[in-house]
Prior knowledge:
Blueprint: E1 2-9, H1 14-23, H2 37-40, H3 50-54, H4 56-62, E2 71-74, H5 79-87, H6 91-100, H7 105-108, E3 117-120, E4 126-129, E5 135-145, H8 160-176, H9 178-181, E6 192-195, E7 204-207, E8 218-221, H10 237-242, H11 251-262, E9 267-269, H12 271-274, H13 280-295, E10 298-302, E11 315-316, E12 326-331, H14 344-352, E13 355-359, E14 364-367, E15 372-374, H15 383-389, H16 405-414, H17 440-452, H18 467-477, E16 480-481, E17 484-485, E18 496-497, E19 528-529, E20 539-541, E21 544-550, E22 556-572, E23 589-591, E24 597-600, H19 602-605, E25 617-622, H20 625-630, E26 634-642, E27 645-655, E28 658-668, H21 673-677, E29 680-685
Parallel strand pairs: 1-4, 8-9, 8-10, 10-13, 23-25, 28-29
Antiparallel strand pairs: 1-5, 2-3, 3-4, 5-12, 6-7, 6-9, 11-12, 13-14, 14-15, 16-17, 18-19, 20-26, 21-22, 22-24, 22-26, 22-29, 25-28, 26-27, 27-28
Helix pairs in contact: 5-6, 13-18
Organism: Colletotrichum zoysiae
InterPro entries: HET
Protein name: Heterokaryon incompatibility protein
Amino acid sequence: MYYTFVILLPPLSTAVFLQFLLTGHYITEPVVKPLSTSLSSTKPSRGFCQICHETILPTLKSCDPDDPKFRYFMHHQTTESLKMSAEEGCRICATVWYKLTRLKPKRDRISTKYTTAYEILYHHRIRMTSKWTLHSVCEFDIFSSSDVVGDNLENHTGSESSLDTAKRWISTCLRDHPSCCAGSDTHFRPSRLLHIGGDDHQVTLHTSTDYPEALSYMTLSHRWGEAQFIQLRRSNEEAFRQGIPWSSLPQTFKDAIRVARHLGSDYLWIDSLCIVQDSKEDWTTEAASMGNIYKNSLSLEGCLYPRTPRALEPERLPWDFDSSGHSYIINADPKEPHELYSRAWVFQEFLLARRTVDCGRDQLFWRCDGLMASEEIPLGFPAKHANYAYPQFTHPGREVLTGHEGMKQWEAEHQQPVRTLGFSGDGQSLFPKDIKIGSPSRLWTSLVDRYSSMSITVEEDRLNAIAGVADVFRPFLGEYHAGMWQYMLPPYLLWSTMPHWRNNERPCKRPSSKRGPTWSWISIEGPISHHWCDFGPSNVLRSQLLDASVVSIQEIHLRIQGPLIRLEWVAYVRGKEALRPKPVNPGPSIRGSRGISKWRSSWLESFVQPDGDADAVINLSFDVAEEEATARDIALLVILESSGQIHGLIIQYKGGGFYSRVGNFYTEKCSSQPFLECDEMEIVLL
């Protein structure tokens, strides 16, 4: 059983705010300084301090778990009091203090002088806060289980005991999880691997002719960024086959080698050392094999870190909530958002690896098709809690973790092997007869939506970095062009770019070099959404795909037939005039992103009645904000009708019968009649 409570802090103090006004800079020092290792590792006979015993615990025990009301209670009233309890080993206070060492006023805008408090939410969720703010510092779950929980953790994730725990996870999986072994290609061999099975500091580059008959290997996921580190090049490949200097390896690589050796592996794959970085031909070849490389390996994520054990160890409560077992407090956010999980390449690695040891900043995690575990809960989260507790701190997007049973049901019904995407909880049912929740289309677009917001060092790699995932869908969705499935067209042409949550501006841009056709999301660098692409019973498809002609990987021509209305640019207004409820021209208001863009269409105006609806609107959304300012004569291509709304593409004529996509549109309170009675045209979309 799970219950949750959250700790929050007050906003910027007056002193911090004044400093910002005077200097333009926030304080850059951490909110608090770390406690010494000996103090923060203390596990006292009483797991909670006197203040927690008098405040949080009795309130937690007595509150109605279904009461949705917010109720506030004081906790520590001074920094000194909180620090003292943390030093004495209070599980809650030690965690709060530890989290504060990660925060800085400049970045997190919290005060260096504060009190803590807490509030009771529904289902025993408790949020630590102050009287004036809801700034979250950390969350706790109340976990009831009869299983053994982890305790006596050491102060480093690379400790022998931590790595021994990971080794037990692997042994359990190999022995007890046949589904994790099913489908592995025992004949697959990466082109190159690092041999790490020799002396401590001996690392050599091996090729397929050097491998033993029975080969197992691990892969490392790491962040490239702007850092300069050793790489395989044509000039040093032969030298690497003789040996790679240990001193030249970055700490992340050394950590990975140490972990892999401890877990019993003689081989390790690291992209920068196993792909010739200055050979486009080799990179293209290896990129095509990336999916198989990860699917047939055990993946290592991240590197090793020091930690505060007392802020991690489950602490048993003085009472049990139910008969399912003892009740413990554990961290609800044991793995803070790691920069690694914002990287595009890591997304594919995460999804394809059958087994993963995730070296989080605070503890090790394990995931495979049969077990999700952490050093806190080493025997695994109970099945009914796994999808709640684990994905929120490991997977880049919880929205795609909706259950694996549908895929197994599909396999049973259609007698086809399903190439499992990731591990249990990472898939939705693959059912290509209908575009709905649980379909491969829906799962693919959920993945793409998350993937598009992830950063990538080399823009040209965007399509390659998801190619392995696309291979999983190929048996079910068929023809694949530049990140889009021909099966899903034309409805899924209605993807849209996402505005920034702060200023509503769309941060998307065109890549520096062409990556694909304008009708594909791959032509945009930035977050996108398939929100308008759902095709259900209330939707009527108004256009059709006639043909897809592949000229090159970057250039695929779509021949589409559908209703088309041309718009003429008249003027552009901002300010007070843009706020008028009725546009100057007759017909519906045609709005761009910054007010009312004065586009007009004689066809639309011919349908306006004297008592027409003044609220009728056609909303134009350009993929790249800068392109809206220069766009002039454009056209609206109708794709589908949904509950009286029209959805379609904004296209721009390029000459010779060719058009490019520049955005999408939808109508509000606008008659669909002019869109359905206009002439249908056959166009070629570039």
